[in-house]
Design a protein that fits this description.
alpha/beta, Glucose Oxidase, domain 1, eight-stranded mixed beta sheet, 3 helices, 8 strands, 26% strand
Length: 130
Amino acid sequence: MEIHCHKISSGSASGPALVSRESISFLGTVDPDTGKVVDPKHQLYGKGVGGKVLIFPGGKGSTVGSYVIYQLKKRGVAPAAMINIRSEPIVAVGAIISGIPLVDGVPADLLDLEDGTFVTVDADGEMVRI
């Protein structure tokens, strides 16, 4: 299946999906050293984002979240790509400065995708393939 999307940050990457119906505040929710979700109140608690195609509605919280995404990338534990229903500046800036493909403008039912489903994000071609 191919889904048209909107490019936020260039590139393409593939990997297993990690899906959250909850927004993510990278500051305080994701450990920048391990890439694991450390907020026990978050749906993804205990799961690692590294190498995954992280699918979530959008970001929230502090602008420092952009730098947490950058630290994830520097430490090799960042998502391979990210998909948002509607991206916002914190996640967008984090993806851009980190070179992580990011797209948005996908249908909300993408949040129903099962974790582990193989997904390819082609931001430059504005296409998600499942």
